[in-house]
From TrEMBL:
Coiled coil: none annotated. Keywords: Acyltransferase, Transferase. InterPro entries: Acyl_CoA_acyltransferase, GNAT_dom, YpeA/RimI_acetyltransf. One of its GO terms (molecular function) is acyltransferase activity, transferring groups other than amino-acyl groups. Residues 10-164 form the N-acetyltransferase domain. This is Acetyltransferase (GNAT) family protein. Pfam families: Acetyltransf_1. CDD domains: NAT_SF. SUPFAM superfamilies: Acyl-CoA N-acyltransferases (Nat).
Amino acid sequence: MASATVTVDLVVRDLLHEDLAACAWTGTPTHLRYISAALGRRTSGAVDYLAVCGPSDLPLGVGGVDYRRRPDAGWLWQFVVHPAFRSCGLGTLLVRAAEDRIRQRGLAHAELGVDAANTGARRLYERLGYRVTREQDEEWDDIDAGGRVVRRRSHCAVLRRTLPPAAA
Ligand SMILES: CC(C)(COP(=O)(O)OP(=O)(O)OC[C@H]1O[C@@H](n2cnc3c(N)ncnc32)[C@H](O)[C@@H]1OP(=O)(O)O)[C@@H](O)C(=O)NCCC(=O)NCCS
């Protein structure tokens, strides 16, 4: 077995419609449609949608901020990092970039929902300063392995962080 340490430059930029062909790894076809719909809401200012990219400029991780869901906070959602690149800090980079966007809107809080079973993601967000404020049930449509539309349900913890002022 050979091993090496490679340093790469990463950029966080807006996710574009033309990136979606390279985002099949993010989930089901339904999930890609949700992302496409979210990108459509960006023109009205309702969302930001970010991608972290390596030197190829292909998305290695994506995530959105919804500004319509909460009156005083940006809502982080649909955060996912390519499985091959997890635990390298990309998720942390994306969350911090999303928080910068929220600050630029003049908002001082970020919120997100984590499925009760997703203990790994919750641990990461708590490490990044997020704290549980409440619990709630979420429902959404998905497509199962047989191509059928199914209603998914999830019990989520809602986590919130008061954002410190941007570093000078
Ligand atoms: C949740 C998710 C987005 C996090 O992305 P990620 O790129 O793995 O996140 P990070 O690498 O920043 O941090 C994850 C872990 O790696 C560790 N880590 C961070 N930088 C690291 C580095 N340079 N080297 C090694 N480990 C590192 C973190 O401490 C964290 O550890 P923890 O799990 O014990 O808390 C990713 O796991 C994912 O896509 N999961 C599936 C979808 C999902 O659950 N999304 C969240 C919905 S709320």
